[in-house]
Amino acid sequence: xxxxxxxxxxxxxxxxxxxxxxxxxxxxxxxxxxxxxxxxxxxxxxxxxxxxxxxxxxxxxxxxxxxxxxxxxxxxxxxxxxxxxxxxxxxxxxxxxxxxxxxxxxxxxxxxxxxxxxxxxxxxxxxxxxxxxxxxxxxxxxxxxxxxxxxxxxxxxxxxxxxxxxxxxxxxxxxxxxxxxxxxxxxxxxxxxxxxxxxxxxxxxxxxxxxxxxxxxxxxxxxxxxxxxxxxxxxxxxxxxxxxxxxxxxxxxxxxxxxxxxxxxxxxxxxxxxxxxxxxxxxxxxxxxxxxxxxxxxxxxxxxxxxxxxxxxxxxxxxxxxxxxxxxxxxxxxxxxxxxxxxxxxxxxxxxxxxxxxxxxxxxxxxxxxxxxxxxxxxxxxxxxxxxxxxxxxxxxxxxxxxxxxxxx
Length: 409
Ligand SMILES: Cc1ncc(COP(=O)(O)O)c(C=O)c1O
What we know:
The model has no long low-confidence stretch (mean pLDDT about 95). This protein is of the alpha/beta class and about 400 residues long. Strand 6 (about 190), helix 8 and strand 7 form a beta-alpha-beta unit. It folds into two domains: about 5-30 and about 290-405, Aspartate Aminotransferase, domain 1; about 35-270, Type I PLP-dependent aspartate aminotransferase-like (Major domain) (Aspartate Aminotransferase, domain 2), CATH 3.40.640. The chain is built from 16 helices and 13 strands. It has helices at about 5-10, 30-45, 55-75, 85-100, 120-125, 145-150, 175-185, 205, 230-235, 250-255, 260-265, 270-280, 290-315, 345-355, 370-375, 395-405; strands at about 20, 80-85, 105-110, 130-135, 155-165, 190, 210-215, 225-230, 320-325, 335-340, 360, 360-365, 385. The structure holds pyridoxal-5'-phosphate (PLP).
């Protein structure tokens, strides 16, 4: 069975605008189901939740439903996740919330490959005497130097922050194996799944990481982010909200400023959308959203890998083009994100040429600033990034390759 992209595309109103949209690694369009759930909340129940009058009760139900589904999405319990404004904010808050549990001289390992969201907040702990160690990338490929982790881990290591998949090099890391190693050293594993979750199913229990964070707006959702943490750690981490919020109030203690109600309710639409795909493809029924997603993602991943392989083969055939990370993706260890550059040729010029041909795409460091610098490129010009989503189809790729052919001539 293959993914019915005509049905998929029909769910996304903006895809009818005539452009080929391949800036999905930055943020995807949302399907009509998400728009409807958000609109319904705002038009019917935009009141303070948690009171006893009817519209408030309904608001509470809608918010709670959205949050529960996002927990189910990654096989977590509802009290193990926080729905917040962004991954950057979640990491910042957790770094501050965990800091009192560390002592001066303790070590935190960050990577050179991650988006800055999972780097900068940890680096700020240096102010409090925490020692930051950097897990570096190979200067040629941008791949993480796995062997280096053994040397970095020590009896002082308290936490390792790393990405499940790079948003530029697109390499998927073996999280369970890394977590095992990190746990054996007595440290916590804090994983950024933002570039992974749009393409593969996430099971936080199977990964066994201590924290997992990802942004929903890159997987057809509203501008929100999910933070998962093991229950004991969420309880132990310190309150970042008003003084009267108690440490056992996980739902609120990591949300200074409060939750975004309409977008939490809009998250129900993410589940509606994936369930509509599941039903349309007549996949084997399953009781939990997580199990239905696992079946659906098998179709999605196969479709995306085929498109990504076509793009990769084309780029590999062009002289002078350098693709970041390893290729091709047939080993299933790469997301369908293809970042490339052409030495001596500004990425900005390539993108301008593509934009002129109605290809929605960008260039730069995509805030994986340290990685792009390690590759010897400037942040401003950086790489051209083709970020595919499951709603891209063969026609998109045909148009993209024609435009690339002209842009690279
Ligand atoms: C891998 C990765 N992590 C984190 C982020 C930051 O997410 P947010 O905008 O939700 O802070 C991004 C955004 O581009 C990303 O690609």
